[in-house]
Design brief:
This protein is of the alpha+beta class. It has four helices and five strands, in the order αββαβαββα. The protein has a single domain, classed as Cytidine Deaminase, domain 2. The structure holds tetrahydrodeoxyuridine.
Length: about 130
């Protein structure tokens, strides 16, 4: 878990959040054990920004990953930074309900670990369309 948290901290340094000044880093482990980081990217047309989790998912998929096996997320300070509702659904696309999501402080200390099922219960996913 520590390698994942470290990667989220490194990714957070790349956050582009001049408007909210809420800097988020995320890291995701794929089915090959590889780690993919991402940060939130805001822009002057505020609603067009995207979350750290989106960046990390993009990196995972572009690297050839197909499954999210573990996630770490951290924002500013010591406050709990869980993935937003939209990101929970985006993670769901590539993750099973038992996937662990570690929410950490900016300094990398674990605050709480959730499963995706806890954060997005009774979810709608790719299986529903098969
Ligand atoms: N943010 C994330 O990157 N991930 C989340 O799950 C929560 C929110 C970002 C979006 C925006 O750039 C900033 O945090 C404030 O909402």
């Amino acid at each position: 878990m520590q390698d994942l948290i470290k990667a989220a901290m490194v990714a957070r340094k790349k956050s582009h959040a001049p408007y909210s000044k809420f800097y988020v880093g995320a890291a995701m482990r794929d089915e090959q054990g590889r780690i993919h980081g991402g940060a939130n990217m805001e822009n002057a047309a505020y609603p067009q920004g995207w979350c750290a989790e989106c960046s990390a998912i993009s990196h995972l998929v572009m690297a050839g990953g197909t499954q999210i096996k573990e996630v770490a997320v951290l924002g500013n300070g010591d406050a709990l930074c869980t993935p937003c509702g939209g990101c929970r659904q985006k993670i769901r696309e590539f993750a099973k309900g038992d996937v662990k999501i570690h929410c950490c402080t900016e300094a990398g200390d674990l605050i709480q670990t959730f499963t995706l099922e806890q954060l997005l219960p009774a979810s709608f996913g790719p299986e529903n369309l098969q």
